[in-house]
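Archive maintenance. Older records in this collection stored only the sequence; we are now back-filling the structure field for every entry so that each record is complete. The fields below show one back-filled record exactly as it appears after the update. Entries are processed alphabetically, and Cytochrome c domain-containing protein is next in the queue.

ARCHIVE ENTRY
Title: Cytochrome c domain-containing protein
Organism field: Cytophaga hutchinsonii
Length field: 121
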Amino acid sequence: MRKYFRIVVAVFVSVLLINSCKTQKKVVYEFPEAMSKPIQEQYAVMCEKGRVLYDLNCAGCHNKKVKGKTIIPDFTEEELGAYSIRMANAVHEENVSEARVSAEELNLITYFLTYKPRNKK
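Back-filled structure field:
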């Protein structure tokens, strides 16, 4: 009976994972035209890692819902720079501390936010 239950759970989880992968849109990042294709491919990998880290650590406070659509804010270079030096902010000192988000992870989040498609105004 336990073996049967484990098989059913494994199949169910597999189906969920497959369906979530199908419904997730691939993000097309906005890289400078002068950036070569191989470099763009490397940056796209880093941006995807940054997207996951953003979703885990930042989206809960920064994302907004507008007409059922999730909007990730467009941060300015100054705002991203302030995050990269962990500008004194009580909320961020706790939620984005070095213990929770390493400097490398913060860089990946910054890549994602820098090259993600801009919101339409």
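Update note: Strands lie at 64-66, 69-71. The mean pLDDT is 83.
Entry marked complete.
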